[in-house]
Design goal:
Largest sheet: 7 strands, antiparallel
Number of strands: 7
Order of helices and strands: HEHEEEEHEHEHHHHHHH
Oligomer: single chain
CATH architecture of the domain at 28-189: 2-Layer Sandwich
CATH topology of the domain at 28-189: Creatine Kinase, Chain A, domain 2
CATH class of the domain at 28-189: Alpha Beta
Number of helices: 11
Strand content: 5-15%
Length: 349
């Protein structure tokens, strides 16, 4: 037993703590997930079309390190020079583009633009497309099949066992949510002195991020603007409460709410009456001012990447709110998904 504990401690030291003792860099890592949807109404994603588009992409870019599932299909490919990776998250309904750590986000942006355009072109020839929404437009129709390997089969099997731990209402009835919901991640480098302050600072930003970035309306009446939050926390991922939420507890707005509670309020379609919308807009612009100043100090000309957030700070309108407003005007989910897909190209052009 002592040897096992020592081995575990060594593994934790190597994986998590030793990297914090090296000099901190300015590198940033970005991971972006996109739904793949069939443009034919009411039709699920065709995995054969996805595999064909993958082959097309790999014929154009040097993602030579490739991993295949149990049936021989490529589900992950990496460019050994940049560390960029094309993969599928949980199922072939969701495509992920991950970037090797870069100091210059403009360079990350340039590669993203090329990858995204190539993927849209390849999928378009198959009657499919990528879109920027956080929930797959065909989530009800799509096949709930995980990628054919042990990891994803094990994960879905685990999530489906929620009835053993109390079932509803403690847990929702969509254990397959990982097959149709998407997320994005940004990683910044840290060292021993900065890791805790960085975690706390980013946690305190979560309620404000919810206002600007919520992108996955979900629920019987689309009452949640960031559905992945509740889909995650009310699944078996949330069985251990320390596996969800954030660490910051500083009170915001003087109403007794910490960052965790306030984010849960700000991802709701209807905000509580105590929210001062004018003051919230001002605070969002202050946060963006700090971000812009930090990017300017880096000296890479990255400040224009913040531009789309300024309008949202003015209007307090997230992509999810725009999505729902269009649905209420009678627009189809197909037209919204197409616009969100092309908007990604325009936003990064």
């Amino acid at each position: 037993m002592r040897n096992q504990i020592t081995t575990l401690q060594d593994a934790l030291e190597t994986r998590f703590f030793a990297p914090l003792r090296r000099p901190r860099t300015r590198r940033v890592g970005v991971e972006l997930e996109f739904p793949i949807w069939n443009r034919t109404p009411g039709t699920p994603t065709d995995f054969a079309a996805v595999h064909a588009a993958t082959d097309d992409f790999l014929s154009r870019f040097p993602f030579s390190d490739q991993v295949r599932d149990d049936t021989g299909n490529i589900y992950r490919a990496t460019d050994p020079n940049t560390g960029d990776e094309l993969s599928f998250d949980c199922s072939y309904n969701t495509l992920e583009i991950s970037f090797g750590p870069d100091e210059n986000l403009i360079e990350t942006h340039r590669r993203f633009t090329a990858y995204y355009a190539a993927l849209q072109e390849a999928l378009g020839r198959q009657g499919h497309a990528l879109t920027g929404t956080g929930i797959n437009p065909r989530w009800r129709e799509n096949r709930p099949d995980p990628i054919g390997n042990g990891r994803y089969r094990m994960l879905l099997h685990h999530l489906k066992s929620y009835s053993k731990y109390g079932g509803s209402p403690r847990f929702h009835d969509h254990p397959e949510f990982g097959l149709f919901s998407c997320a994005s991640q940004t990683q910044v480098d840290a060292d021993e002195e900065t890791v805790v302050p960085l975690i706390n600072a980013f946690n305190l930003l979560e309620p404000f991020k919810a206002v600007l970035l919520a992108n996955s309306p979900f629920g019987k009446r689309n009452e949640t603007l960031c559905g992945r939050d509740s889909l995650w926390s009310k699944s078996l991922h949330g069985l251990n409460p320390h596996n969800c939420g954030m660490y910051g507890v500083t009170v915001l707005y003087g109403h007794g709410y910490g960052a965790v509670e306030l984010r849960s309020l700000m991802i709701r379609r209807d905000w509580p009456s105590f929210i001062d919308r004018k003051a919230l807009s001002v605070q969002l612009h202050r946060i963006l001012d700090v971000a812009e100043e930090g990017l300017a100090r880096r000296g890479f000309g990255e400040e224009p990447l913040l531009a789309p957030l300024r309008r949202r700070a003015d209007t307090l309108t997230s992509p999810a709110r725009e999505h729902l407003a269009r649905l209420e005007r009678g627009e189809s989910i197909e037209s919204i998904a197409l616009d969100y897909g092309s908007a990604e190209e325009e936003r990064h052009a």
